[in-house]
Amino acid sequence: MIYVVIVFLWVALLLYLVMGGADFGAGIIELFTSTKNKSRTRRIMYNAIGPIWEANHMWLIIAIVILFVGFPVIYATMSTYLHIPLTVMLMGIIARGTALTFRNYDAVHDNMQKVYNKIFVYSSFITPLFLGIIAGSAVSGRVDPQATNFLDAYIYSWLNWFSVAIGFFTVALCGFLAAIYLIGETDDDAERKGFIRKARIMNVAAVVAGSVVFIASVKEKIPLVQWVFGNIIGVAAVSAATISLIVLWYLIGKGKRYIIRVLAGFQMTMILLTTTYRHYPNIIILKNGGHLSLLADQGTEKTIQALGIALLAGSIFILPALIYLVWSFQQKPEQADGDVHGH
């Protein structure tokens, strides 16, 4: 049953990266959109993410609950030594959700809309930045349970070149996902070309940020190159991601919006597989050379069994409802477009 729980944890993280990443990326795209095009981009973006933006956080909640219930030592370590970036990320999620709600449903439209817009776009940038920082910190070997001062325990555990570089890499990935997703949300040729251009920019940003991650890993003496290229799974995943990226850019000009979304999600899957496979089952690498493992540091057997059963039973209800939700909101833009043209 422990492997069932681990699979659910990995899939929850993947779905949050793919679905929540595209959600955050929409705000990042808006942040880097010219003033004259912001309102149009905002309209397209809201039609795309508005109906399900809150559902995306379900995957993060599931991952947190799995860690809290099934791996209490790992959860306690992360929430203690990484509590600062965790707090910033959660504040970003709250601020972003609040701003999105008020800027679209506020009964009075006044100058506060500008405030809501700024909160939304900047929190859309900050949240994935610190999500990436947390992920990088977990494997950076900087978490120090034997630290005797505040800086070593709670600052240097996450404030380092490697973790920050992964944070910016995550931001670029989210922007790329959103741009790919938004390409298929408009029938206007100029708007579609604009999103394709943004996708290219975010793609370049991701490549640059990814290169910085490898440079930072060498500087911080983190064996990232060995993790990625030192095993056949890593090499295969990187190769598959590269090939799918080439195919994606070929199909963008063909108007294959659903296929390019699948390919973008596949790339995120390969990236997560590459970065987690090599040091599995270790989820946190400590500064003293030790580690916290999903197998060695799990909860009691009865707890894991109950958690596994709950996850399996819950998926029977959650997954069909989620599929229906995604399907239903995909119908909305077409109806709205028909109303506009009919009018």
TrEMBL record:
Q: What stretches pass through the bilayer?
A: 6-32, 53-75, 81-99, 119-139, 159-181, 201-218, 224-251, 258-277, 304-327
Q: Which domain of life is it from?
A: Bacteria
Any one annotated GO CC term? cytochrome complex
Tagged with keyword Transmembrane: yes
Task: Share an example GO biological-process annotation for this protein.
Answer: aerobic electron transport chain
Q: Which UniProt keywords apply?
A: Cell membrane, Membrane, Oxidoreductase, Transmembrane, Transmembrane helix
GO MF, any single term: oxidoreductase activity, acting on diphenols and related substances as donors, oxygen as acceptor
Q: Where in the cell is it found?
A: Cell membrane
User: What is this entry's stated membrane topology?
Assistant: Multi-pass membrane protein
InterPro entries, alphabetized: Cyt-d_oxidase_su2
Q: What is its main location?
A: membrane
Q: What is its EC number?
A: 1.10.3.-
Q: Which PANTHER family match?
A: CYTOCHROME BD2 SUBUNIT II (PTHR43141)
Q: What family name appears in the similarity comment?
A: Belongs to the cytochrome ubiquinol oxidase subunit 2 family.
What is the protein name stated in its UniProt record? Answer: Cytochrome d ubiquinol oxidase subunit II
Naturally occurring in which organism (per UniProt):
Mucilaginibacter phyllosphaerae
